[in-house]
């Protein structure tokens, strides 16, 4: 019996190589061409450019490049003097106190952060040189590669350099100045406080000028009124030919009274003479004398009343003018007293800038907070990586 010869199986080595990140193995027989491998950068592009490289750049910048920044702090309060007693200077001084000036506090803080303050720093404290110190890094220095060299960009940098805010609980204003040198931060803060005090002085001067100017206007108006009434009174005297109508009418009335008394005495003498010697020739003489007195009395009465040119007619206009003059004189005296009082009040400073904490010279840089910023950058870039990966996976799913 012939033995069946079976071929001896040959062992073929099969090499399994991963082609995908999912772990799927593809057999090769060693004869076919080798598959192309994806490069490391291509396979890890997303995580490299959204997480590792940004974090590395952030670490290099924060720990090797970022410049130290010093912070000088100051605290101040704007207060106003208030008075409630107006009876006398002593009472005003006795009742004068200090209260917080809310509106002026906001005005001072806005002025510190204004372009006017920046321009003064440019002229007096060389702000441009402070912002371009050699200690500054290429990002924080001004001017730099990402901003233009003009005042608009400088003002943006200035608002990041200086901050002024009010504590809502205490009403105290806080001033913080950030600079690349400790001395610069202190000097800028001290200069800003000086500018704020100058603003307070200008506000006081303006209030002084307005108050005294208005009081002088009232006095001038009262003086013109007195002068006008006096001119009308003089014109009335010239037109009437009488200096003082009231006195002249009083003098006429006194004359009438004396003449009436004389007439009464003469009539009494006539009655007595008729009773004793009715045929006495002196009776007719006394009667003529009494009649002459009566005629004089009638003339005096006509001067006082009864005609358009009488004293009574003129007396009304004269007394009206005299009354207006008295009222105007009292108004003038009151305006002058008020001006003196306003001048005394205005000469005292009403607004005060009270420095609670003077600008300090910092011993240690406050910024940048390297570890905190690096940790925040790491979290931020990791969140960016997760977001981008989710977006890419979603796009691949919709595309398949």
Write structural notes for this entry:
With 400 residues, the protein is an alpha+beta fold. The chain has two domains: 53-215 and 349-386; 217-346. Helices cover 62% and strands 11% of the residues. It has helices at residues 40-43, 45-65, 89-95, 102-112, 115-124, 127-131, 151-161, 182-240, 245-276, 282-304, 311-346, 370-399; strands at 15-18, 25-28, 70-82, 97-100, 162-166, 173-179, 351-357. Strands 3, 4, 5, 6 and 7 form a five-stranded antiparallel β-sheet that branches. Strand 1 (15-18) and strand 2 (25-28) form a beta hairpin. The protein is rod-shaped. The relative contact order is 0.13.
Largest sheet: 5 strands, antiparallel
**Beta-strand content:** 5-15%
Overall mean confidence score, pLDDT: 78
Number of contiguous helices: 12
Shape type: rod-shaped
Low-pLDDT ranges: 9-37, 83-97
Annotation, overall tally of beta strands: 7
Structural class estimated from helices and strands: alpha+beta
**First CA to last CA: what distance?**
63 Å
Task: Please give the share of residues in helix.
Answer: 55-70%
Number of domains: 2
Global Rg: 53 Å
Helix-strand string: EEHHEHEHHHHEEHHHHEH
Give the tags.
alpha+beta; 12 helices; two-stranded antiparallel sheet
In short:
The chain is an alpha+beta fold. Helices cover 62% and strands 11% of the residues.
Topology:
Elements: E1 15-18, E2 25-28, H1 40-43, H2 45-65, E3 70-82, H3 89-95, E4 97-100, H4 102-112, H5 115-124, H6 127-131, H7 151-161, E5 162-166, E6 173-179, H8 182-240, H9 245-276, H10 282-304, H11 311-346, E7 351-357, H12 370-399
Antiparallel strand pairs: 1-2, 3-4, 3-6, 3-7, 5-6
Helix pairs in contact: 2-12, 4-8, 8-11, 9-10, 9-11
């Amino acid at each position: 019996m012939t033995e069946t010869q079976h071929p001896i199986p040959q062992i073929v080595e099969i090499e399994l190589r991963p082609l995908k990140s999912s772990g799927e193995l593809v057999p090769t027989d060693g004869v076919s061409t080798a598959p192309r491998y994806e490069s490391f950068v291509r396979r890890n592009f997303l995580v490299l450019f959204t997480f590792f490289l940004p974090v590395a750049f952030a670490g290099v910048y924060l720990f090797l490049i970022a410049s130290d920044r010093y912070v000088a702090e100051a605290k101040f309060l704007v207060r106003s003097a208030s008075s409630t007693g107006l009876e006398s200077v002593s009472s005003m001084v006795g009742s004068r106190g200090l209260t917080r000036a809310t509106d002026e506090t906001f005005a001072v803080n806005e002025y510190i952060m204004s372009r006017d303050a920046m321009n003064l720093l440019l002229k007096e404290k060389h702000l441009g040189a402070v912002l371009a110190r050699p200690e500054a890094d290429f990002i924080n220095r001004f001017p730099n590669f990402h901003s233009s060299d003009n005042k608009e960009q400088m003002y943006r940098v200035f608002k990041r350099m200086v901050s002024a805010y009010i504590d809502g609980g205490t009403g105290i204003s806080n001033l913080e100045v950030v600079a690349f040198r400790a001395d610069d931060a202190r000097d800028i803060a001290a200069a800003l406080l000086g500018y704020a005090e100058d603003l307070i002085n200008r506000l006081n001067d303006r209030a002084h000028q307005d108050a005294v100017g208005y009081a002088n206007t009232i006095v001038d108006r009262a003086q013109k009124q007195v002068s006008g009434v006096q001119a009308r009174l003089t014109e009335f005297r010239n037109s009437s030919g009488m200096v003082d109508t009231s006195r002249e009418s009083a003098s006429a009335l006194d004359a009438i009274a004396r003449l009436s008394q004389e007439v009464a005495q003469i009539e009494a003498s006539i009655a007595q003479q008729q009773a004793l010697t009715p045929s006495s020739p002196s009776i007719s003489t006394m009667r003529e004398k009494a009649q002459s007195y009566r005629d004089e009395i009638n003339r005096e009465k006509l001067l006082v009343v009864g005609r358009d040119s009488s004293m009574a007619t003129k007396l009304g206009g004269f007394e009206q003018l005299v009354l207006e003059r008295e009222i105007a004189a009292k108004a003038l005296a009151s305006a002058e007293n008020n001006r003196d009082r306003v001048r005394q009040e205005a000469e005292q400073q009403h607004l005060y800038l009270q420095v609670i904490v003077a600008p300090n010279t910092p011993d240690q840089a406050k910024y940048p907070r390297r570890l905190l910023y690096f940790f925040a950058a790491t979290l931020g870039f990791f969140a960016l990586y997760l977001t981008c990966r989710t977006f890419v996976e979603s796009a691949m799913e919709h595309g398949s």
